[in-house]
Task: structure prediction
Amino acid sequence: MRIHILRTGEVRVSTFLPFGGDNCSLLKASGITTPKKDWIWLPVCCYLIEHPRGLILVDTGWHREMSPDGVYDKKAQIKSLGSWLLYHVNQGRIPKGEAIDEHLREMGLKPGDLDYVLLTHLDCDHANGLRAVSDAKRILCAPEELACARKNGFVRYQKKWWNGVDLRTFEWNGSEGPAGKSFDLLGDGSVVMVNIPGHCDGLCAVKLTNPEGKFVLLFADGGYATKSWQEMITSGVALDKKMQRKSLEWIREQSLDSQCIASLATHDSNVEPHVIEL
Ligand SMILES: [Zn+2]
Result:
């Protein structure tokens, strides 16, 4: 397996959103009370996996229309996300060449070459780029995540991000992870979506394992950096704080496992684009 860690732009948030901890209120994490000098830009990553049984994309980043000229564009963002409220919580920018379809083109690939697109969850910085890869053969997320998106539609999620996209839910077929729910994509244990709820209901880590048992953990927004699990710092945004902590404990346990060769958060400032051979 070869795992390409790709950067698909950046997101600006209040420092309390990624590292607010267990007692951070949603209001504080949203940044409404945070002066702009205390906001930070974090990377947004996606992962392209060259698997012997197919090409798999994990998450899609921002759509180019968010940032037409490659710089932060308030008007374009509000139009693309379809939400004025979300603009207050996070702002995005994508330098030219970093949108997911642009990365694929650079690699000589088309969205239709993707056998699977797996969504760790449906927050805007993960799902807004979905329409750029809508030709992929299978586009999947957890059933709880689509339900969560429907329930929290006005504030957090906008249906327009996957309008016209054949987004389907998978069925849990295993019991790995902090919630006892996992989905083995290919039936051989090499690509497993593990439910790590808290940040949102259907959040999944993607665990990639080779025949020798060595694995790479992509833990999405289960924590915002390596220090999140090292120092047990939960993020400020969570639908279920208690479950979020339990999920972070599982991420820590996995990351410390001697078979784990890499453990990556989507928004870790210390992670540069690179390729992992697994
Ligand atoms: Zn995110």
